[in-house]
Amino acid sequence: MGPHPAVAAIRLAVRRVLHDILTDDEPATPRPAPRRTGAYTGGHRAGHEPPSSPLVLVACSGGADSMALASALAFEAPKLGIRAGGVTVDHGLQPGSDARAGEVVLRLRELGLDPVESVAVRVGRTGGPEAAARDARYAALDAAADHHGAEAILLGHTRDDQAETVLLGLARGSGIRSLSGMAAVSGAGGRYRRPFLHLDRQTARKACMVQSLPVWDDPHNADPAYTRSRLRHEGLPALEKALGKGVVEALARTAQLSRDDADALDAWAVQAATAVRDATGLLECAKLYALPPAVRRRVLRSAAIEAGAPAGSLFARHIEEVDRLITGWRGQGAINLPGKVVAQRQGGRLVIRQG
């Protein structure tokens, strides 16, 4: 008799991702040795040479999604000759968080993962509590992957998480890229992999239950002070009540379709960015005007970022103001952008530079 359907589903999802990781790595040069840096504060195994088999880490909070992911990784990785390890990040935002992180480490080791460690981070305030915690978490995961020479880090985001991300992007009004949600593969060199984007949260929880895996429910996930929590417990249920079941699946499909469109437009914009410049490298307004709006605005955004505008602070309203220098030229003055970047029209050229 085979495994429970929920367990079979999570294992299949992880198996496919591990196959992809191996395939992606085949033509690569020999794997670099783990970097030993003084800035890294997690655990390490000084003096040990890196084994030849690839290492894949799982980011585990102790919640149902990531524990299900860890169990599937521990089961599937050895069959493919892959070493499996784990990292848990202690954000220090709740009393006893260090003790809980220690418990997660023990659970991961019980699954047979190695190396396993807990990394404590300090969460700042930039962008709000949720964004600051996310930034600190990914910085810690990047450091852990570099330290151990890991090929990839698996993340336990589910289809439900994807639906929430799409709705948050819709609320921001940030355009099609924000509607594309989370990518199955992201990060430098495709470091981050999300095997569960096509599985619902209940499947992961069921897989933990039938395997008797203890899970921890983060109280922040039920705290109405957090936007995502309100969306999860109030917004999505209200949408399903009004529109019927299937809202989560539809939003997840929207994410994939939006990502495909956004990727195509981004590629078009990269090509167009060269064609709309003169011999000195300045953007020509007439050529920009001839581009479709979606492509032109991407070219303008890229030019602003190249000039020094922080991508995270550059919003749609900024690009719309710059776009009016092309499409609604009435002799208006320079546009101030984040990062002390200035955009202005001069003699049929658009000049974007540090002010």
Automatic annotation (TrEMBL):
- Per the record, the major location class is cytoplasm
Q: Where in the cell is it found?
A: Cytoplasm
Q: What is its EC number?
A: 6.3.4.19
The residues forming a coiled coil are: none
Reaction equations catalysed: cytidine(34) in tRNA(Ile2) + L-lysine + ATP = lysidine(34) in tRNA(Ile2) + AMP + diphosphate + H(+)
Keywords assigned by UniProt, alphabetized? ATP-binding, Cytoplasm, Ligase, Nucleotide-binding, tRNA processing
Query: Domain named tRNA(Ile)-lysidine synthase substrate-binding: which ranges?
Result: 283-350
Q: Which InterPro entries match?
A: Rossmann-like_a/b/a_fold, TilS/TtcA_N, tRNA_Ile_lys_synt, tRNA_Ile_lys_synt_N, tRNA_Ile_lys_synt_subst-bd
Binding residues annotated for ATP, in chain numbering = 61-66
Keyword Lyase tagged? no
| GO annotation, biological process | tRNA modification
In terms of HAMAP family, this protein maps to: tRNA_Ile_lys_synt
Question: Domain notes, please?
Answer: The N-terminal region contains the highly conserved SGGXDS motif, predicted to be a P-loop motif involved in ATP binding.
What the record says about family reads:
Belongs to the tRNA(Ile)-lysidine synthase family.
Q: What does this protein do?
A: Ligates lysine onto the cytidine present at position 34 of the AUA codon-specific tRNA(Ile) that contains the anticodon CAU, in an ATP-dependent manner. Cytidine is converted to lysidine, thus changing the amino acid specificity of the tRNA from methionine to isoleucine.
Q: Kindly provide the name given to this protein in its UniProt entry.
A: tRNA(Ile)-lysidine synthase
Q: Which organism is this entry from?
A: Streptomyces shenzhenensis
